[in-house]
Amino acid sequence: MSAFVEHPNLSPRSLQARAYQLIAVDQVLSKSTLLILPTAAGKTAVACMAIAQRLKEKSGWVLFIAPTVALVNQHMKNSSIAFKDNLNWNILCISGKDTVETRQSLWGTSRVIFATPQVVRNDVKNGRLSLKDCCMLVVDEAHHCVGSHAMRESARLYLSQADNCLVMGATASPSSRIEKIQEICKNLEIENIHLRTREDRMIINYLSELEINEVKVDVPNKLRELAEPFIIWQKQIVDRERRLGTYVYPGEIGMSGLANAMDRSSRAIKMGDSRAYSSVSNIATAMRLNHLINHLLCQGITAAGEFLDRMQEESKKKKSSKEFLEDYRVRNLIIELSNSEEYHSKISAIRRIVIERLRNDEDSKIIIFSTFRDTVKALEAALSEFEHIKPIQFIGQSSKSGSIGLSPRKQIDRLEKFKSGEFNVLIATSVGEEGLDIPSADLAIFYEPVASEIRMIQRRGRTGRKKQGDVAVLIARETMDERALLSSRKKEEYMYKSVRRVARRFPSSISNLRNISDFSVIINGNKQNIREYVNHEKDKFRTELSIVDNSLDIQVAEENRKLPPQKFRPDGQTGLEQF
């Protein structure tokens, strides 16, 4: 049964109405809210409905910001469908590709403007834009509103200038750290958190199934041989620092342990311990070795080569980088890499997965994520050898390490070509992880797991948006890949606990649907009261409690039955079974 919303500022039957979305809209209109929904659960639909009602109640205009041009363009297109009957709004998209003169003439000509945060920040600071009459700010991917990010600065400028402030922050992955969630809330002056997970009873039936498969591969012996001298070198450094009491983490050597050792050494220097200077130098070398080892074992030849190329650039300014590159072991590796083609097992695994998927479904669309551009390039070359595979790169704007970036226009063009079927494999760096709605993508392949819960959630969200999707995570055995996957899982589990802890610090917000009384729901051509529809859906998914709950008594009885005899005797008293 399809339900659609009707509202004076929305096109008839333009948005599907789901009860959990309408409850979210009511809360967003009540006070500044951080909306946390799973990917593909309709955060943009909630924003559109909230914008429609806000502009009905208030004069002024609404600003919608997102971190990338491709994402801003996508939101504008999706929202234009919802607002298509309001031609007088003249919905606009403004980004850095527009000249200063063009932007200045565009600001203030529409009631709904989509923009990148950089142009908002720059134009406000330079006096080309006033946010005084902006009655609502929508911040997509709100987890960026920390530190000195342009999204955070744009939000602060809005809150300091606007007469009628209302903020809606939207994200699927705020953070697992309570401190960061609190910082996001502080920077956006959030007064309420609205959270729903994939397991929520009201939401679970609307989300496509997502099957996650771990594909474990063996690292080629040749790569392990190349990495072995650097593993020994790093172990020697860490063993020395352990004896000095600088490196204190047990178990395998990792970046967290090295970072802790660096902090301890830096504090020792501030306290006047001159011996710590050598520790700082040694730990910095161990950190470089850690990156190099992981590049070789988890990524392959191309990524390790890219890492060393970046160090070549660094060596022009940093003496320590120059000394590192002059070591005979590093020089030998550079020569070996320059004479080798990529042969990591992950390349052949991706070939096999892609070929099998396209053989079973020739219309399938696949997204491959990799951290490094050189790996993206190597994957494109490896897949281009097959006639029915049509791969295309999707990378960021900046040009670095000899790689020329993609302009925003080219990024949008490549996404359109992928959606239309001109290309069936999109190979992306981190720029493709966030927010992009590619409904037809049914398989996402991660070249490597990432330890960040935010990036893992965002990567997964690029598939299974409209139909069942699959995710394949490639894991190199006995490498950092295994630890990274475990880390992201633990952080994701803790993320929702952290959000709930922060949410409890706000006054409770009960949705009475008063703010969305202007909405109606159309079900099979019949108009229905919004309150009746939402309450009906709530009742349908309400948890039922039995009159008598015997489960606890049964559980206690089972536990008691398993207790050993000594649990029932005073401490120190022996029993017959001990003789």
Descriptors for this entry?
single chain; 579 residues; alpha/beta; Rossmann fold; phosphoenolpyruvate carboxylase, domain 3; seven-stranded parallel β-sheet; six-stranded parallel β-sheet; 20 helices; 14% strand; globular
Overall spatial form: globular
Q: What is the makeup of the main sheet?
A: 7 strands, parallel
- What is the arithmetic mean of pLDDT? 86
Percent in helix: 40-55%
Q: How large, in whole angstroms, is the Cα Rg?
A: 28 Å
CATH topology of the largest domain: Rossmann fold
Count of discrete alpha- or pi-helical segments spanning 4 or more residues: 20
Order of neighbouring strands in the sheet with most strands: 4-5-3-6-7-2-8
CATH homologous superfamily of the largest domain, by name? Answer: P-loop containing nucleotide triphosphate hydrolases
Structural class: alpha/beta
Low-confidence stretches: none
Provide the β-strand percentage band.
Answer: 5-15%
How far apart are the termini? 71 Å
Which CATH architecture of the largest domain would you pick?
3-Layer(aba) Sandwich
Give the beta-strand count.
Answer: 16
